[in-house]
Amino acid sequence: MSTSKQQRTGHLALFGSNVMWGVMAPISKFVLAGGIVTSAALTDIRIFGGTLLFWLASLFFKAEKVDRKDYIRLFGAGFFSTAFNQICFIKGVSLTSPVDASICTSTLPIWTMIMAAIFLKEPITGKKAGGVLLGLGGALLLIFFGNRGAASGNSNIWGDLLCLLSQISYGVYLVFFQDVIRKYSPVTLMKWKYTFGALILLPLSFSSLFRVGWASMPSMQWAGLAYILLFGTFLSYLIVPLGQKHLRPTVVAMYNYLQPITAATVAILWGLDSFNVFKLIAVVMIFSGVMLVNRSRAAGN
Q: How far, in Å, CA of 285 to CA of 162, rounded?
């Protein structure tokens, strides 16, 4: 596959995965608001269920040998991108409003750009800095002015901090684990990341699954859980490495700006919101920011 075709595939993969994650945010809030599934149980469902699905998927692909020295790296990747990241985000969503969670999600490119500049010596060029700030401005415009009148719940400082911490954790993964991201296939990478994530969580929260009132759960919450597991976890994380392999960490992080757009779109379709001029301007700013970062080059652009 040519480099340009690989990059196109990477962009499509990042677009699809972030749209699925954007839809997952309001669905997760809906499931948690029912009071039957706790944030700890939902995290367990995602990680334990995802581990099972990725191992099943690996049966349909040629087995890939993992170097013994890479298991430590995969353990670290599982901690930062799976266990710690999802614990913080899901608990944060349960405490704060989807609006605040979206604000925190949109900060990922900032943390990634800063860490990549410090540790990978990736230059912060004019286009890159401008694209990040333009995209962030669009996301904030959408959040603060595009969702007036929507039922967004109550803000909570601890929930906000947890959501913010989840983005920093994922930024660490994008910057410091590029070697294993690029080395292994998506199925192998996800299989081991989720396996190690499950092992980290097992002694901490596995008992939460036994306290869920499964028999009394409404069908709509079952449907929400199915979406979270199959699309918000399995499929999205299966395809996202295609973008991580062929695009720079800052570009990968920029696609997080699609999540507030998707969340707003879901709200409109559910009759919780309406389209307005602020949303139109925000969409233009966000996609312009993505284009600027993607077109930036190290040689002073």
A: 27
User: What token pair was written down for 271?
Assistant: 């009759």
Q: Number of folded domains in the chain?
A: 1
Q: pLDDT tens across 59-101, in order?
A: 998 889 999 999 999 999 999 999 999 999 988 888 877 667 7
Q: Does residue 120 lie in a domain region? A: yes
CB 174 within 8 A of CB 247: no
Q: Is 283 within the bounds of a domain? A: no
Going from the C-alpha of 20 to that of each of 17, 238, 273, the distances in angstroms are 5, 12, 19
Find tokens 């912060």 and name the residue.
124
Domain-embedded: residue 284 = no
Neighbours of 179 (CB within 10 A): 11
Tens-place pLDDT, residues 110-135: 888 888 888 888 887 888 888 888 88
Q: Which residues span the domain enclosing 244? A: 3-124+152-253
In SS3 terms, 238-300 reads as HHHHHHHHHCCHHHHHHHHHHHHHHHHHHHHHCCCCCCCHHHHHHHHHHHHHHHHHHHCCCCC
294 lies in a domain?
Answer: no
Run of H or E including 27 = helix 3-33
